[in-house]
């Protein structure tokens, strides 16, 4: 019995050692990003490279500001991501309400159709969509990213499931007897009830749009219209790469996300798992 | 505004039909002359119409047009010229297309298969009652997911830099291994890109498996323990079969994600791209927006669509089978 206990505790130490190693491997690139972002290029290019933070934090970031419109790109990303998130929340909860609580002919087929669209890879329509955007005159215009981004089949599915289970039919019936229109029911009853689902869906959508790369790269060609992802990539264009500058830009573009995540990490992790598990 | 107008038009249309069956719900003190059923219909269609309008313009039309464009030669400006299956002939005879397909599958396998295995092990460790500081470990492992793919690709491009002073080359130097020209080496490129995928996604998949493990009722383990099942038997006959839906989900999303890989090679090997890291989406992107060959690029998009369908159904098939054979074992 005693050897058994010993085995368990030895196994436990192995598990701890493994977890600590994995955690360090997870965190190391963040630390290393900071090291590079604060060191001059000469310290980075020596062998072995710098391993502790240096004193060039400000000057490296100044080089970033000289090279790309960092704040403009962050603002573009913020505008695109928050507009799409807000729009998706409203459009998807409206549609979700309709699919969950309103009866109309073809409801099931229309809903299954929306689920089916989730299977289509976005690259399939990439080229024609580019020409539609060109025809609309939206090249290098944030609308080129925002308007197609408002179409979110997963969001509709997600809101339908939530509304179907969270809003009792009796409340809706009672509101109808009081003479509420369907839109009033949506506005005064559905919206307050689905706020937790808004948080979840909002986080998922915001993250996805914030990190989106291919589509903004194709349609936002003017440097002044770049989102932060497209702008960061252009830091890699110089023939002689200044890694201190490149990672300074990358680091400061990542910091806000990490801070927000650490503040709301429980909600964050719950959102990501709910979004995955329930579909 | 347009929607509002359409709605009133709808209700006007309905007013005629309502008069024939207006005695359906006569009790309700409604001022308007149409029934609740009809009003639900009108608002139902109105509430779902934004998705369908957007999907018509940015979904249906582009997809149909892709299929159309795949049979034409077009540079985006001049006239389109019908070429039949020639675009497909061109890409199927282009060694770089096959190389890109091979790279995509290889990088996908290297980046996802070991990663999903590691995620299951990590989730199992984090689910163990003996382990403390779980939330700290969970946070650390999940943090990479918060960064954008572009940021990950840039950071790992610098970690796997070709210079002798690059981080990985420095570490290899400690073991007496010569520095590797990562961005120009067949396996170096794939290893670097697979590492990016591994690092960013392993925490995400761990969290999902963990959620799955926590949803397994404890009674099952208790009962198994009473029957004398060892820890390994518990894992094989309870944990893995109960995790089946979660495994299917992660395999499915990982496969689709891996087949669409673009940002990592595009950033790691530079805008021009190189054959060692060329992925199918990168091949398509270069064809279309680098060379203005929109016909062949559309043909590639269609081929990719079918590849994704084939691979995801194959994966689903195998993931289902694994679960089933385990279940037989339980019975």
From TrEMBL, chain A:
GO terms for biological process: transmembrane transport. One of its GO terms (cellular component) is plasma membrane. The chain crosses the membrane at residues 13-34, 70-97, 109-133, 145-164, 185-210, 243-264. The lineage of its organism: Bacteria, Bacillati, Bacillota, Bacilli, Bacillales. It is found in: Cell membrane. The keyword Chloroplast does not apply. Residues 74-264 form the ABC transmembrane type-1 domain. The keyword Membrane applies. Coiled coil: none annotated. Its main location: membrane. It comes from Salipaludibacillus aurantiacus. Keywords: Cell membrane, Membrane, Transmembrane, Transmembrane helix, Transport. Belongs to the binding-protein-dependent transport system permease family. This is Cellobiose transport system permease protein. Pfam families: BPD_transp_1. It is a multi-pass membrane protein.
């Amino acid at each position: 019995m005693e050897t058994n206990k010993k085995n368990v505790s030895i196994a436990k130490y192995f598990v701890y050692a493994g977890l600590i190693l994995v955690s360090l491997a997870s965190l190391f690139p963040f630390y290393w990003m900071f090291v590079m972002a604060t060191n001059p290029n000469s310290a980075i290019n020596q062998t072995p490279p710098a391993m502790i933070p240096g004193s060039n934090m400000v000057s490296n970031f100044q080089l970033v500001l000289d090279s790309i419109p960092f704040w403009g790109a962050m603002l573009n990303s913020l505008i695109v991501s928050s507009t799409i998130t807000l729009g998706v929340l409203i459009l998807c909860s409206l549609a979700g309400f309709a699919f969950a609580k309103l009866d109309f002919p073809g409801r099931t087929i229309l809903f299954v159709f929306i689920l089916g669209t989730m299977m289509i890879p976005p690259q399939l329509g990439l080229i024609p969509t580019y020409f539609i955007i060109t025809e609309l005159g939206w090249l290098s215009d944030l609308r080129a990213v925002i308007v197609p981004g408002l179409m979110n089949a997963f969001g509709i599915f997600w809101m339908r499931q939530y509304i179907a289970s969270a809003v009792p039919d009796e409340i809706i019936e009672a509101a109808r007897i009081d003479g509420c229109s369907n839109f009033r029911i949506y506005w005064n009853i559905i919206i307050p009830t689905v706020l937790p689902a808004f948080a979840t869906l909002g986080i998922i959508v915001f993250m996805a749009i914030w990190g989106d790369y291919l589509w903004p790269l194709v349609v936002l060609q003017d440097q002044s219209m770049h989102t932060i992802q497209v702008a960061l990539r252009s830091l890699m264009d110089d023939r002689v790469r200044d890694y201190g500058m490149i990672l300074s830009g990358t680091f400061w573009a990542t910091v806000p996300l990490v801070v927000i995540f650490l503040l709301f990490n429980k909600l964050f992790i719950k959102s990501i798992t709910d979004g995955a598990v329930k579909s | 505004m347009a929607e509002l107008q359409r709605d009133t038009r709808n209700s006007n249309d309905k007013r005629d039909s309502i008069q024939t069956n207006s005695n359906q719900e006569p009790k309700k003190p409604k001022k308007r002359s149409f029934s609740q059923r009809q009003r639900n219909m009108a608002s139902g269609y109105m509430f779902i119409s934004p998705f369908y309008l957007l999907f018509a313009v940015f979904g249906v039309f582009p997809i149909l047009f892709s299929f159309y464009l795949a049979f034409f030669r077009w540079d985006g400006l001049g006239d389109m010229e019908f070429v039949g299956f020639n675009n497909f002939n061109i890409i199927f005879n282009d060694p770089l297309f096959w190389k890109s397909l091979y790279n995509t599958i290889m990088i996908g396998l290297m980046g996802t298969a070991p990663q999903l295995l590691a995620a299951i092990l990590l989730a199992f460790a984090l689910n163990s009652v003996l382990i403390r500081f779980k939330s700290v470990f969970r946070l650390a492992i999940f943090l990479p997911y918060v960064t954008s793919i572009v940021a990950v690709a840039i950071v790992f491009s610098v970690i796997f830099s070709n210079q002798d002073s690059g981080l990985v080359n420095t570490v290899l130097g400690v073991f007496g291994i010569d520095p590797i020209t990562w961005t120009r080496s067949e396996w170096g490129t794939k290893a670097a890109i697979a590492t990016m995928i591994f690092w960013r996604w392993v925490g995400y998949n761990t969290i999902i498996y963990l959620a799955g493990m926590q949803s397994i009722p404890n009674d099952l383990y208790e009962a198994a323990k009473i029957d004398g099942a060892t820890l390994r038997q518990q894992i094989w006959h309870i944990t893995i079969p109960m995790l089946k839906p979660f495994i299917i989900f992660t395999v499915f999303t990982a496969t689709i994600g891996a087949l669409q890989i673009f940002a990592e090679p595009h950033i790691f090997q530079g805008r021009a791209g190189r054959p060692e890291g060329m992925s199918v989406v990168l091949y398509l992107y270069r064809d279309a927006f680098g060379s203005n060959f929109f016909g062949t690029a559309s043909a590639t998009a269609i081929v990719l669509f079918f590849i994704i369908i084939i691979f995801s159904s194959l994966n689903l098939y195998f993931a289902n089978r694994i679960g089933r054979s385990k279940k037989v074992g339980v019975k």
